[in-house]
Design goal:
This protein is α/β, with parallel strands linked by helices. The protein is 39% helix and 25% strand. The chain contains 16 helices and 19 strands. The longest helix is centred in the C-terminal third of the chain and has 22 residues. Keywords: ATP-binding, Nucleotide-binding.
Length: 470
């Protein structure tokens, strides 16, 4: 008999525990449904294993799974069932599918009575319901599952198979009495396999999020990627003086923490200026930055930044030390993930570096690679930027101009826009920089000479501030 103390169950997945922990109460019934190979068993085992690590016992009853194969697959995901089994916290039982329904139910009852689990997993309910034709017998079976651990105040998890091409459950009254129903799906987005969890029902949860991607990762297990979402628009942070005299004279005296800066440029004429601007802020204000790159490896970005710094005349050793102390570079392959996954991965990176490195700036280079992925991209981007504003972070987004929609969409969510042109300007061939800040009546233009002065000002800051530190 489970003790009278109140049990606390977990999903074992941080994001789900944050959103839906209220549904895992003693006596709850959870349904995990999905197509074959969608990750249902992995999800159920993740819950079981995570609670076993907290000292709660799971009885895992299957009519289909091979024990050796299951334990081996789970071990690859960082789930060590043999260890918790040795401690008496996990019991695997395979019921012969040849048993009739009455004998199967009797067997399950005996196992529960002998083992006294806190969690019972049935994998899958379809196998038990197959062949049960009589309406009264089927209703009795459904009522049995609902009351399975009610008397013991435990947690019941039922796994249900959905045929390919169907997303309707046919579990009768079980769907009505279930406290939560999670449906696992997979589809193709471009050339990427995208797994999603649809939350069809969750009692006691205020969350309005109904679908989000997930992945099954070696050594990690099941990882979910809820899109960043913020219900309230945060206010902007404190004023930060713009360190470049020429920009102050052009009408941009200061920015605020939480500002978004967008630097747009032709894909065949990419400028070093966005990193010059970034380095000016870092050096003048003693800030730190996280650079997330989509197109280049981390080492190449650091080499590029090093080239800008060493032009000031400072030694390579001093410049490398500055980079190591003030800039963190991370690379993401944008073609390996969905948009929701990319933004969730980025948010995790940012939160980690806020705690570890105390960053003030986030740089995204090159956003043109992912900003062509439709309206869904813009929705996720807007929510992500609101979260960064809440954290008081300054965001610099560097992007190639792929098309007019791409440029306007990125400008729409930005507080400052730089647009770099290279080519004929009237009768003169050269570069110019279109510049606009929120609050300005009209945009302005920086000439090639004025852009060169940004580089000169950066070099002066480097020689003055970094040399003084040395």
């Amino acid at each position: 008999m489970i003790g009278v103390f109140v049990l606390k169950y977990v999903f074992g997945i941080r994001e789900l525990d944050n959103m839906y922990s209220g549904v895992l109460r003693p006596g709850s019934l959870i349904v995990i449904a999905g197509h074959p190979g969608s990750g249902k068993t992995t999800f159920a085992i993740t819950i079981s294993y995570s609670n076993a690590l907290n000292g709660l016992k799971t009885l895992y009853i299957t009519l289909q799974e091979d024990k050796f194969k299951l334990y081996s697959v789970m071990k690859d995901l960082g789930i060590y069932l043999e260890e918790v089994e040795r401690k008496g916290l996990f019991k695997f039982v395979n019921i012969p599918i040849s048993l009739d329904i009455k004998n199967s139910i009797d067997w399950i009852n005996r196992l529960i009575e002998e083992y006294k689990p806190h969690i019972v997993v049935i994998d899958s309910i379809n196998a038990l319901l197959t062949g049960v034709e009589e309406k009264d017998q089927r209703a009795w079976l459904q009522n049995f599952f609902y009351g399975l651990l009610q008397r013991e105040k435990g947690l019941t998890i039922l796994i249900a198979e959905l045929p390919y091409g169907y997303d309707r459950l046919k579990l009768g009254s079980i769907e009505f009495v279930a406290d939560a129903i999670f449906v696992l799906k997979h589809s193709i987005e471009g050339s990427t396999l995208v797994r999603t969890i649809e939350v069809r029902k969750v009692r006691g949860s205020p969350s309005t999020l109904v679908e989000f991607p997930f992945a099954i990762l070696t050594g990690v297990g099941l990882k979910v990627y809820p899109p960043p979402y913020l219900e309230e628009i945060p206010i902007e942070g404190e004023e930060i003086l713009v360190p470049f005299r020429i920009l102050r004279e052009k009408g941009c005296h200061h920015i605020h923490k939480g500002f978004v800066i967008y630097y747009a440029q032709p894909p065949d004429a990419r400028s070093r200026l966005p990193y010059v601007i970034l380095l000016g802020f870092l050096i003048y204000h003693g800030m730190k930055a996280l650079v997330i790159t989509y197109n280049y490896p981390e080492s190449m970005v650091k080499t590029f930044i090093l080239g800008i710094l060493t032009r000031s005349g400072l030694s390579r050793e001093i410049c490398e030390k500055f980079i190591d102390e003030n800039i963190v570079v991370k690379a993401i392959n944008p073609y390996a993930y969905s948009i929701s996954q990319i933004y969730a991965i980025e948010l995790n990176m940012v939160e980690r570096e806020i705690n570890r490195s105390k960053i003030d700036f986030i740089v995204f280079d090159d956003v043109g690679v992912i900003s062509t992925r439709g309206f869904n991209y813009l929705i996720h981007l807007a929510n992500q930027l609101l979260i960064f504003k809440k954290y008081g972070l300054i965001v610099l987004r560097i992007g190639s101009i792929v098309d007019d929609f791409n440029y306007r969409a990125n400008s729409l969510v930005s507080d400052i826009v730089f647009k770099y042109h290279y080519g004929m300007g009237g009768e003169i061939f050269g570069a110019r920089l279109h510049f606009w800040r929120r609050g300005m009546f009209n945009p302005t233009i920086l000439s090639q000479d004025e852009m060169n002065s940004l580089v000169e000002e950066l070099n002066e800051m480097l020689r003055e501030k970094i040399s003084l530190k040395q």
